[in-house]
Write a structure and sequence with these properties.
The complex is a heterodimer. Chain A is an alpha/beta fold. Chain A contains eight helices and twelve strands. In chain A, the strands form three sheets. A five-stranded parallel β-sheet of chain A has the order 2-1-3-4-5, sandwiched between helices. In chain A, strands 6-7-8-9 form a four-stranded antiparallel β-sheet, with helices on one face. In chain A, strands 10-12-11 form a three-stranded antiparallel β-sheet. In chain A, helix 2 packs parallel to helix 3 and helix 6 packs across helix 8. In chain B, helix 2 runs antiparallel to helix 3, helix 4 packs antiparallel against helix 5 and helix 5 runs parallel beside helix 9. The longest helix of chain B is centred in the N-terminal third of the chain and has 54 residues.
Chain lengths: 224, 449
């Protein structure tokens, strides 16, 4: 998968590059609109991660240019929050998604995978962990065909952890994924721990869940 | 009592006060005038009579000087008395026989005069004179019974005339005052009405030829201009600062994520990094909240959607279900009335209800309850969110919507922007937020649409 990161803040694009490279993406970085435009003309990308506030041009113009060239890349707009949120949502910008800054890299990756599933029709919409099957389209979890009744948040949590298998996700990363859409005045709660406890209880009714690891003081990890 | 009530704080308009003052002061003037009028009339009439009597006595003395007294004094006792048939006027001359005993001096006085056995009140001039070495006294009298009548006639006439003048002048005054006060009333009506923010203030000049009103209007406009600019600068500052902080926060956040993933760190370092991530997240949320508030206040959000309030609340309730379950709090939604609300911003309203219901959970007792009631009250749709929580002290109720006010200082949770967000979103939609609370019993938030 080829990714073009268009972001003038070098430290930021660097961290994105490190993360995505580790996830086996081939990354290319452009620090301004002109260089991005050049790269678009020479290479084919599956993803364009586009910061709108470029030093030499409006990111939206670059987006239109890419679409004009017939690029089929999935475009994710990275915005400083609120900047154009309303404008973008009302605007047929041709972007596939947009993520407000500051964002979590894990969140970015899950959005990219959601787009892939949507765009290309992933071979299977079912993830498995041990003998548990997670159907992403129907939002159901089954064990050997037997359905397990999870709440919306429990499902989101399990899904997110499975998406980042073998990696520890911190409580804050999980909280921001599950509650991130709502701006609330409750930043340090133990809701995640309670969700995990309930989730484990429901899963372990069917099979042992030692693969569902608690990393002390840090967060949770699903090993497989 | 009712009269005194009229003088309680701010009960009377300037115009009414002017009118009252006018009427009262004029009534007072009439009363005073009516009181002294009889005295004036009497004085004028007596002055007049006295002058006439003096002139007559002068003429009589002149006649005596020219023609001698004998032509006049016919009586045996050398006296003379003449009066007309109505006994209103008379002239009398008496010789004073024993001048040593006489006290006769020139004087004018009221006296009852006996004419043919009938005593009648007269104004009488007494004037002693000497003729042929004989001392005489001249008396000329004029009946004054008609004077009382004259007095009352004049009094009546002047009373009605003055009353008429006063009434006309009160109406004229009222008309003039109302004309005069029109610019002031306009200033009060247009400029001093509550506005949600200085930017929605009406800066139109109120025309007036009155110096004070012009000055007042100009100064209010100037002050509001300054206030508006100050607000604008503050809002832009918050917006710019928040915006500029997003990128550095992004960088640190992503770097922490990458370092944590690398994983080859000691447990202690991992825990400290995770802790830093949490701190950073807190900072990020504060900035997001400030930015949200300032962007709403700067009208950077749009209201174009339409939602059914009951379904929005059910959605929030579902989203938050895990939290109520966890604390075993019973959440009840009673829909007595519903509202298809438009235009609105759905995401903002969601955030508003989420924060209110989340507060009701957070500050509730274990196994408490939350009752959400949708109803019509006084022709207005309202949503009441009532919890059985710890409540808010009365002296804190006034500040709960202020930024960075945390009611429970011991609690590490929250940073005091939840209710300011609620308030801002509500004002943006012109929804009124009321709060009632009793410490230890619970809090009720009421949203009036």
């Amino acid at each position: 998968m080829n990714v073009l990161i268009v972001e003038d803040e070098r430290s930021l694009s660097h961290e994105m590059e490190i993360y995505l490279t580790r996830q086996n993406f081939n990354c290319d970085v452009a620090f301004n609109g002109k260089s991005a435009s050049d790269k678009l003309h020479t290479n084919n990308y599956d993803f364009i991660l586009l910061d709108l506030g470029l030093p030499d041009m409006d990111g939206l113009d670059l987006l239109k240019e890419a679409r004009k060239m017939g690029s089929e890349a999935a475009i994710i707009i990275l915005t400083a929050r609120g900047e154009v949120e309303d404008k973008i949502s009302g605007l047929d910008s041709g972007a596939d998604d947009y993520i407000p800054k500051p964002f979590s890299l894990a969140e970015l990756q899950s959005r990219m995978q959601a787009i892939l599933r949507r765009k290309h029709g992933l071979k299977s919409n079912v993830m498995t962990v041990q003998d548990f099957e997670i159907d992403i389209s129907n939002r159901t979890v089954t064990f050997n065909g037997a359905p397990i009744n999870l709440t919306k948040k429990e499902f989101d949590l399990l899904h997110y952890l499975c998406l980042h298998k073998n990696r520890v996700l911190t409580r804050i990363q999980l909280t921001e994924h599950i509650w991130g859409d709502v701006l609330e005045d409750d930043y340090e709660s133990n809701y995640i721990d309670v969700h995990v406890k309930n989730l484990r209880k429901k899963l372990s009714a069917h099979a042992p869940t030692d693969w569902f690891e608690t990393v002390r003081g840090v967060g949770y990890r699903i090993n497989s | 009592m009712a009269f005194l009530m009229a003088f309680r704080k701010g009960a009377l308009t300037l115009q009414v006060k002017f009118a009252l003052y006018n009427a009262l002061s004029k009534a007072l003037i009439i009363a005073a005038f009516m009181a002294i009028l009889p005295l004036i009339v009497e004085k004028v009439v007596y002055d007049h009579i006295d002058r006439r009597l003096t002139a007559r006595s002068d003429r009589v003395l002149l006649i005596i000087q020219r023609g001698g007294i004998d032509d006049i004094v016919l009586e045996q006792d050398c006296s003379f008395e003449s009066y007309n048939i109505l006994k209103e006027d008379f002239v009398a001359i008496y010789p004073i026989l024993d001048p040593t005993k006489s006290t006769s001096t020139f004087k004018i006085d009221n006296e009852a005069w006996s004419i043919e056995g009938e005593k009648l009140e007269h104004r009488i001039i007494r004037r002693p004179f000497t003729y042929d070495n004989q001392l005489y006294e001249l008396n000329i009298g004029e009946g004054i019974s008609s004077i009382e009548e004259l007095k009352s006639t004049i009094q009546k006439f002047s009373f009605w005339m003055m009353l008429g003048v006063v009434i006309i002048s009160i109406f004229l005054d009222l008309g003039f005052v109302s004309l005069l006060m029109r610019p002031l009333n306009k200033i009060i009506g247009n400029k001093l009405k509550p506005v949600p923010s200085p930017s929605s203030f009406d800066f139109t000049e109120v025309p007036s030829s009155t110096f004070e009103f012009n000055r007042l209007d100009q100064r209010i406009n100037e002050m509001m201009h300054k206030l508006r600019d100050a607000f604008q600068i503050e809002k832009e500052f918050i917006s710019n600062v928040s915006h500029e902080l997003q990128t550095p926060i992004s960088i640190i956040q992503n770097r922490l994520e990458n370092i944590i993933i690398e994983g080859n760190l000691s447990e202690d370092v991992m825990i400290r990094l995770t802790d830093s991530q949490r701190t950073l997240s807190r900072m990020s949320r504060i900035i997001k909240a400030l930015l949200l508030i300032s962007q709403i206040e700067n009208d950077q959000y749009i209201k174009t959607e339409s939602i059914k309030i009951s379904s929005l609340i059910n959605e929030v309730a579902e989203e938050i279900e895990d939290r109520t379950n966890q604390r075993e709090i019973k959440l009840m939604v009673n829909v007595d009335a519903d509202l298809e609300y438009s235009p609105c911003n759905r995401a903002l309203l969601f955030t508003m209800f989420f924060n209110l219901i989340n507060n009701a959970i957070k500050y509730n007792k274990e196994k408490g309850s939350i009752a959400i009631t949708l109803s019509n009250h006084n022709d207005k749709f309202q949503v009441e969110i009532k919890d059985t929580g710890i409540g808010i002290e009365q002296n804190q109720l006034g500040t709960i919507f202020d930024r960075f006010i945390r009611l429970n200082k011991n609690s590490a949770e929250g940073f005091g922007l939840g209710l300011p967000i609620v308030k801002t979103i509500a004002s943006f939609h012109q929804i009124e937020v009321l709060v009632a609370s009793e410490a230890g019993v619970g809090t009720t938030f009421t949203l009036v649409f």
